[in-house]
Specification:
Blueprint: H1 4-10, E1 39-46, H2 56-68, E2 72-79, H3 81-93, E3 100-103, H4 113-118, H5 136-141, E4 143-144, E5 147-148, E6 151-152, E7 155-163, H6 164-169, H7 179-191, E8 195-197, H8 207-222, H9 226-231, H10 240-254, H11 267-275, E9 279-285, H12 289-292, E10 302-305, E11 318-322, E12 325-328, H13 335-345, H14 351-359, H15 377-386, E13 389-390, H16 401-413, H17 420-434
Parallel strand pairs: 1-2, 1-3, 8-9, 11-13
Antiparallel strand pairs: 3-12, 4-5, 6-12, 7-9, 7-10, 7-11
Helix pairs in contact: 2-14, 8-10, 10-17, 16-17
């Protein structure tokens, strides 16, 4: 059962600031497992294998772990998101979960920190040597009831990846800074014979990528504490600001700015259209940097900007949040070895940490680690300087509310007569069903 006290206590103001703490990890515990016996650790994560070069989790991590600990073998499996969630749910229920697996902050997913820790599935990681080297917000978002149960990949931003060459050909000189200029850019692209935006809505979670960015500029720009008030019964998801956000998103589909029949396009197909130069933009997150910057049929320069759902003269608000990361099976038979691996991995003086930082698409939440990808420089600097940002909305909702958003908005994409008001009414009904005082 979800309680208001539980989630308010776990919620942090990560979007207000990311203050990275000083300190450094110790490598004293990293000199091999205690008894020297051969051990095989298992790990399952979600996502797509890196399109170009080595995949950190599949290739680099197992190799360097075994080099450091010759008696430890790490076997890693990476599954597409939908397969991952089905697999991990089944394995947890059967008591066959891997030693390490993907988890999400707060209530942000069926495999979320709050859900899994309350269910007794996650080991307490509070005693790991590097914990003080992670920002307060990122650490708290992976905690429950005062204990740390996950290690985040970093900080993720939702935004708009765009093709600078197609923008130039359509006569778009500047990155849109507000909603009217964004709509104008979409129309110029359409008039030039270019599909403005492609989305992989067959994978329903993609629907969140645009809607949360627009909500940042409507719902949370008006009231940053909206979700706390929602939990307290003082606000509802039927609020006019949520209706406005979804109406704005619907407008992009109605005007043909988002490719037709996206309910038939999965994320990989949408990504391929973008990197092949067949669409000028795609809404996605920093976690998809490897796939969205991979080589395709077209050679072009990429850019990235927050979807500007703001009115002219108003500041842009961004959707920025603690990223998914890794949790440890509370029933692991090799908990000591797992913790040795983690202490080595996240020791900021280790070779493994250096490789992780180099290949990690997310923005680091560790002290002293600079921004890794120049592509995100402008958006990240805006985030740091303005403070106008909010977590991904589903992180403060019981699991199931975001699914309702996806299903009902999918009806709009599919051409049914569902209205934004009906979408928000269904979201509120699901929230009321799941949220208990």
């Amino acid at each position: 059962m979800f309680t208001k006290k539980t989630v308010i206590a776990s919620a942090t103001a990560l979007a207000t600031s990311v203050m990275l703490l000083s300190g450094c990890g110790s490598s004293d515990d990293n000199e091999g497992s205690k008894n020297g016996d051969s051990v095989t650790l298992t790990m399952i994560v979600s996502g797509n294998k890196a399109a170009d070069g080595q995949d950190f989790e599949l290739d680099v991590l197992p190799k360097l772990v075994n080099a450091k600990f010759p008696n430890i073998k790490l076997e890693v499996q990476k599954l597409p998101d939908d397969q991952y969630h089905t697999s991990i749910k089944t394995k947890l229920a059967a008591g066959e979960a891997p030693d390490i697996f993907r988890v999400w902050p707060r209530m942000g997913n069926a495999a979320s920190i709050i859900d899994l820790s309350k269910g007794g599935y996650l080991a307490d990681l509070s005693d790991l040597t590097f914990m003080s080297n992670i920002s307060d917000g990122a650490r708290e978002d992976m905690s429950y009831d005062g204990k740390v149960y996950g290690i985040t990949k970093g900080i993720d931003m939702l935004g708009t990846y765009y093709n600078k060459d197609l923008f130039a050909k359509a006569g778009i000189a500047d990155v849109p800074k507000d909603w009217p200029s964004f709509l104008d850019a979409c129309q110029k692209l359409l008039d030039s014979g270019v599909t403005p935006i492609v989305m992989g809505d067959k994978d329903p979670w993609w629907i969140q990528f645009g809607s949360y960015q627009l909500a940042a500029n409507t719902v949370y720009a008006a009231d940053k504490d909206f979700d706390l008030k929602l939990q307290a019964g003082e606000k509802k998801l039927t609020d006019e600001t949520w209706v406005k956000a979804l109406s704005m998103y619907k407008e992009l589909y109605d005007k043909g700015y988002i490719a037709k029949n996206t309910l038939g396009l999965g994320g990989p197909q949408a990504t391929q259209m973008f990197i092949d130069g067949k669409a000028a933009m795609v809404f996605d997150g920093t976690w998809d940097y490897p796939t969205l910057t991979a080589k395709g049929a077209a050679d072009f320069e990429r850019g990235f900007f927050p979807l500007p759902g703001n009115e002219q003269g108003e500041p842009v608000w961004q959707a920025v949040s603690t990223a998914a990361g890794w949790g440890v099976n509370a029933k692991s038979k090799h908990l000591d070895e797992v913790k040795q691996v983690l202490n080595y991995w996240f020791d900021n003086s280790s070779d493994l940490f250096a490789e992780w930082v180099k290949l990690n698409p997310s923005i680091s939440a560790f002290n002293g680690v600079p921004l890794n990808n120049e592509l995100y420089k402008d958006a990240y600097e805006l985030y740091q300087s303005s403070g106008n940002s909010i977590y991904f909305a589903n992180q403060m909702w019981p699991n199931g509310v975001a699914d309702t958003l996806q299903v009902k908005f999918g009806e709009i994409i599919g051409g049914r007569n569902t209205t934004p008001e009906e979408v928000t009414s269904a979201m509120q009904a699901k929230f009321d069903e799941l949220w208990k005082e």
